[in-house]
Design brief:
The complex is a heterodimer.
Chain A: H1 17-45, H2 49-53, H3 69-75, H4 80-114, H5 121-139, H6 144-161, H7 172-180, H8 187-200, H9 207-231, H10 235-243, H11 248-259, H12 261-277, H13 280-285, H14 293-299, E1 301-302, E2 305-306, H15 308-328, H16 330-343
Antiparallel strand pairs in A: 1-2
Chain B: H1 5-11, H2 17-20, H3 30-39, H4 43-70, E1 72-77, E2 80-85, H5 89-95, H6 100-103, E3 105-106, H7 112-134, H8 140-164, E4 170-171, H9 173-199, H10 206-214, H11 221-231, H12 240-245, H13 257-285, H14 290-297, H15 302-329, H16 334-339, H17 351-360, H18 364-396
Antiparallel strand pairs in B: 1-2, 3-4
């Protein structure tokens, strides 16, 4: 089935002229549904506030005189500094977090395909108990450095004594399921402790905080998508390289990764878009310096009511790069997602 | 183990005469090689370690702390936090106390339609249970699990019919989230499937449509929310003449509860239909052609082909897609927050938004409790879906 992934002739019917006409009608309708909101966005960005408020005008030069005022205000005027700061933040945060998470997730996905792990229930249980103990200790006033050290010592002692006696263990599939199922976690359920944590170490409102948060939230996607790609890399190639003396790392970076470029591209685009568009985590973790674009868009809903004209410009400059990338890489996206979806 | 062994044996060739003779085809700098060679034995830990650490630190650890916060009264004070354990008070308040109408909604008498829906759901679930009891793979554990799931789902349906159907009733954030998820996914799936079926035909210009249809997925949800706020504006939106023509000039989308919810659902469908569409289309294009040709030879019509071949072949992809969208849809927050501010009142508040608003009003314990309830709902539905529907669909193939 895999081999046929892009067979061009699935549908044996060549549509009759009538069917083709109806199809075009339906497709055209949906294209209109998709494009009209974007068209309205573009039109609004060239309007003055008065033109927006006095009723709907549709076509520039025909029923209203377009102006570049809003564009000027956002890119060169009062908002210039905010715009470029947030744009820079978005680029840095999205790119850095996506590259790191792609590498980290690919390594984990590769490991889950090629190595054997057998973590014991006893070890995991002990670990959770120790983490719980140290949390309770910290919340009751013990300094956190002391609590961590104490918990680690207790963990190693118990692990080496009691832990060794229980043999029941998990398998690779369990680990993979556990990692991937983290995507089910609503971010709101974890964000308060993360907020407190970043506050304590002084990382609130920095790009690093957002990068870390996005890595954590996108990691499951990368592992899920890349695992299937790596399963398809022929083992013989890796064995050959191993015979020639290449290390594990060398095999991974020189053979496995280059062979999986389509999957990497699709996955990268996916996590990049998630990080680029993310709103809730950014809202929690950044207040001024590290704000990203979605926040500045939302901020245009000021006390005087939503400023449609500025918002439209901001949304446009925010979505243009992503849309261009998506159009250029459209084939990769479909394929990359499908491979993940078939195997789950 | 079987996969690892051949590699292990061969990596031990390192340092053998073969390599000293300079036959190694992939040269590396000596220092890097040294590091690589020394950590080769723990390569398995090096590969997966970072991912495990990140998940432990930023998912599991916060989750445990969150559980504790949800059972305490917490506030920010100068130089740190003040936290006091109060047991289940926060949950109590949400499920039975002052916050009950916010989370669960206000119930009213159930109209006949509600009873019909409830009976229908009960009948369907009961039939499923009955079939399971008669099935070959029956087990007591499976029956208990299915029984519990049935009861919980029925309770959910009961909550929905009580709060949504008649006037004094008002859905709480839990019902609203469920409505968003199920209405959104239903529309997304069927529109996406329809578009995919249209575009798999040999039509000139289909690549153009493919690319166009992909766009909404790439737009930030905040942007989508504002776009739809502009479009649904009755006074200055582009459809104003149409509304006026229908005599609706004075109605406002964002002040009528159901219209506001509909606006959120429309925005969500607009944004996420492409995801369904693009994967279903790729799935369709990957299907084998032989069964179709055989069916055509046997004289099957288009409807029969779709019903008996295409639909079945697409089931695994479909169920996975719905699972992914379900997981993501439960987190919905940007759209209602920006489109309607959760209003009018709390009519469009999702669970995440509910939790966020509690956080903003500094009810940190309550916020964590709402988030935990959301986690419970997502985990329950996700697990039930995977075990009861998805496995069967994938195995059936």
């Amino acid at each position: 089935m895999r081999k046929r992934l892009f067979a061009k002739n699935y549908s044996p019917f060549k549509p009759s002229p009538l069917a083709a006409a109806l199809s075009y009608l339906a497709l055209g309708f949906w294209a209109l549904v998709v494009l009209f909101p974007i068209f309205w966005l573009v039109v609004t960005s060239f309007k003055t506030p008065i033109q927006v408020d006095t009723g709907p005008f549709y076509l520039p030069y025909i029923d209203f005189q377009p102006t570049l005022d809003s564009w000027h205000y956002i890119l060169l005027g009062d908002l210039q500094n905010d715009t470029f700061r947030n744009y820079g933040n978005t680029i840095v945060v999205a790119l850095t977090s996506s590259i790191i998470v792609l590498f980290m997730g690919s390594a984990a996905a590769y490991a889950l395909v090629r190595f054997n792990y057998q973590p014991r229930y006893a070890t995991i249980g002990l670990f959770i108990v120790c983490v719980g103990l140290s949390i309770v200790a910290v919340l009751n006033g013990v300094p956190w450095q002391l609590a961590i050290v104490a918990a680690l010592v207790i963990f190693f002692l118990l692990w080496q004594t009691i832990g060794r006696r229980f043999k029941a263990a998990l398998s690779n599939n369990d680990i993979a399921f556990w990692l991937i199922s983290q995507r089910m976690l609503p971010p709101i359920a974890t964000i308060i402790p993360i907020y407190v944590l970043f506050q304590q170490v002084g990382l609130l409102d920095t790009q690093i905080a957002l990068i870390i948060a996005y890595i954590a939230s996108n990691l499951p996607i990368v592992i899920w998508l890349m695992r299937d790609y790596f399963q398809n890399v022929p083992l013989e190639l890796e064995e050959g390289a191993a015979i020639d003396g290449a290390s594990r790392y060398r095999i991974f970076t020189s053979i496995v990764l280059p062979l999986s470029v389509p999957g990497l591209v699709a996955t990268f685009l996916f996590v990049l878009v998630f990080a680029w568009n993310e709103y809730l985590l950014a809202l929690f973790l950044s207040s001024a310096k590290a704000q990203t674009l979605p926040l500045i868009v939302a901020a245009q809903n000021a006390t005087r009511g939503p400023q449609w004209w500025y918002m439209s410009v901001l949304i446009l400059i925010m979505i243009i790069p992503v849309i261009i990338m998506a159009i250029a890489l459209e084939r990769f996206i479909a394929r990359g997602l499908l491979v993940g979806a078939v195997k789950g | 183990m079987s996969r690892r062994e051949p590699l292990q044996v061969k990596t031990s060739v390192q340092g053998s005469p073969l390599i000293e003779e300079g036959l190694e085809p992939i040269p590396t700098t000596s220092r890097l090689r040294g590091v690589a060679a020394r950590t080769e034995g723990v390569a398995n830990a090096v590969f997966i370690g970072p991912a495990i650490v990140v998940v432990l630190m930023f998912a599991i650890f916060p989750l445990i702390v969150s559980l504790y916060i949800s059972m305490s009264r917490m506030s920010f004070v100068a130089g740190g936090i003040d936290i006091k354990f109060i047991g289940f008070d926060n949950y109590n308040k949400l499920l039975f106390g002052s916050q009950k109408t916010h989370l669960l909604g206000l119930s009213s008498d159930v109209p006949p339609l509600g009873w019909v829906l409830l009976a229908g759901a009960a009948g369907l679930l009961g039939w499923g249970l009955l079939r399971y009891i008669q099935a070959k793979y029956f087990s007591i554990g499976g029956l208990i699990g299915r029984g519990v799931a049935t009861v919980i789902v029925l309770a959910g349906v009961w909550l929905l019919v009580q709060t949504t159907l008649q006037a004094p009733g008002r859905p709480g954030t839990l019902s609203i989230t469920l409505i968003y998820v199920f209405a959104g996914i239903t529309f997304q799936y069927f529109i996406g499937l329809g578009l995919a079926l249209l575009l798999v035909q040999k039509l000139p210009g289909r690549r153009f449509f493919r690319v166009i249809f992909l766009i909404p997925m790439m737009i930030t949800p905040v942007g989508v929310a504002y776009m739809f706020r502009m479009l649904t504006d009755f006074g200055k939106g582009p459809f104003t003449p149409i509304w006026k023509g229908f005599g609706l000039g004075n109605v406002s989308w964002v002040s009528d509860p159901w219209l506001a919810r509909l606006a959120v659902i429309i925005g969500d469908v607009w944004q996420w239909t492409p995801f369904m569409f693009i994967v279903l289309l790729a799935g369709l294009e990957g299907l084998p052609v032989e069964p179709l040709e055989a069916a055509v030879v046997d004289g099957a019509n288009r409807l029969q082909i779709f019903r008996y071949i295409t639909w079945h072949a697409l089931l695994p992809v479909s169920t996975t897609l719905i699972l992914i969208r379900m997981i993501e849809a439960f987190k919905i927050v940007d759209l209602p927050n920006v489109l309607t501010n959760g209003g009018p009142g709390t009519a469009t508040e999702s669970l995440t938004l509910h939790s966020f608003i509690a956080w903003r009003t500094l009810d940190l314990g309550g916020s964590a409790a709402v988030a935990y309830l959301l986690l419970l709902v997502v985990t329950f539905l996700g697990t039930a879906y995977v075990n009861l529907i998805r496995h069967r669909a994938v195995e059936a193939l």
